[in-house]
Specification:
The structure is a homodimer. Chain A is an alpha/beta fold and about 260 residues long. Chain A has two domains: about 5-55; about 65-250, 3-Layer(aba) Sandwich (Rossmann fold). Chain A is built from ten helices and five strands. In chain A, strands 3-2-1-4-5 form a five-stranded parallel sheet, with helices on both faces. The radius of gyration of chain A is 21 Å and the shape is globular. Chain A starts with a helix and ends in a 9-residue tail after the last strand. The model of chain A is unreliable at about 1-30 (pLDDT under 50). The interface between A and B is large, with 42 and 42 residues. Chains A, B: May function as somatic storage protein during early seedling development. Chains A, B: GO terms for molecular function: acid phosphatase activity; nutrient reservoir activity.
């Protein structure tokens, strides 16, 4: 693969190349090994920028991980980068949670999303290209019904801290009501306990954008008197919209996008 | 520096270490070189996570770049990572801008912040530790008054595209009214032109949080009839609050935080 081809590959990511971009005429030939290293570094940097852009909510809706970044996302998800990103997001959430003086009326709430927030579907996505394959609803439903999705350790620790501080925990997930029983079992087996409410998509919520569905549900919480202080989710559609929390915490997820 | 010391250093970043964290007892000794490499990789990963967390709006307000990440931030700001992150954010903004069918009443607006959004104060920060030194208002004012802040190339390209598409450009900056003349000259010399309005902090706005000041100004734009379709800024306080834009674009900035 030449540097030139790499330029083409990344036309989807980049619309103007700085003068710093290596020009292959500037290198003596045939330094094949050096080319390969340069290319690998370029791919890594461009894909990291793509991932960054996602975490900063700069990307338009996307259906699959860009082909050029499939390997990068796989490595990230299986490496320390993902673990450390989960840790710092949850640590910041925990520090904020501790910093708030709760009222004693039991109405201070923390909202958690479930998939890729409390539970990790990494085993499923590892078998399906880490987001490079188009999402298959039926296959994913089969996986959910197994009820074996493991906890995200850093999120489980935050969850315990939040409970112990006296927050009411409300779980708000895009999973359908039909998965309620297996979701409850899965959460308990993964170590989660004592949530105040578990909200799943009812038949009325079918077809709604996640950001609308979740905003509506948060609005209902507020009508019940809850003060939503924190909200943890791996999608911006978990966190934005209306009735948003005082602080929200975006957990990393470069594998899929939910609007 | 031992791995153990590294752990201590990063206690501010990490509250739970996964089992993947290298245990120095697991390595044969005295592989000093390998230790050094491992440490460097750890620092790099932890600091990248810190930077990611900032871009995802997960961090509490901070005053300086963490000591351990000073070198990481310097390398990032001077390397391709920063350039590529600027490029992808501006590219996504441009694609969104093009995708909107504008009304022909001249009321479709795009809001731009100035510092670290259109103009780059990197020369100033390079001389002041890339955010590792505590911000010095007087020194920064002196720098601003020189009027030599260069354009961010990818943002200048977006700016031109936005103008050519027919948007009204409104510049909304935290700079004070006292810097108006030099800011206008600086912008023009850097290649920016034809903005509809340049809003700076008046004496009435002194002491307001940026997120409040900017929300108020956007609210005034809406009262004048403008539809704020896009908003580009390097701080979340440029983008959040009320009267927010349809889509906003967070440009990277690991050097400072404005609430």
């Amino acid at each position: 693969m030449t540097i030139f081809k790499l330029f083409l590959l990344f036309s989807f990511l980049s619309f103007s190349f700085s003068e710093e971009t290596p020009n292959h005429h500037a290198f003596p030939r045939p330094l094949i090994l050096e080319y390969a290293e340069l290319e690998e570094e370029e791919v890594s940097l461009r894909c990291r920028s793509w991932r960054f852009a996602g975490e900063a909510n700069n990307l338009s809706p996307w259906k699959t991980v860009p082909k050029e970044c499939a390997e990068h996302v796989k490595e990230y998800m299986n490496g320390k980068g993902y673990v450390y990103d989960l840790e710092i997001a949850n640590k910041e959430a925990g520090e904020f949670a501790k910093s708030v003086k709760l009222k004693e009326d039991g109405l201070d709430a923390w909202v958690f999303d479930i998939d890729e927030t409390l539970l990790s579907n990494l085993p499923y996505y590892a078998a399906h290209g880490y987001g490079f394959e188009v999402f298959d609803h039926a296959k994913f439903d089969d996986w959910v019904e197994k009820g074996v999705t493991p906890a995200i350790e850093a999120s489980l620790k935050l969850y315990e801290d939040i409970l112990n501080l006296g927050y009411k925990v409300i779980l708000l997930t895009g999973r359908s009501e039909s998965h309620r029983a297996v979701t409850v079992d899965n959460l308990i087996n993964a170590g989660f306990r004592d949530w105040h409410q578990l909200i799943l998509r009812s038949s009325d919520d079918k077809g709604k954008l996640a950001v609308i569905y979740k905003s509506e549900k948060r609005s209902e919480m507020e009508k019940e008197g809850f003060r939503i202080l924190g909200n943890s989710g791996d999608q911006w559609s978990d966190l934005l919209g209306s009735s948003v929390s005082v602080r929200s915490f975006k957990l990393p997820n470069p594998m899929y996008f939910i609007a």
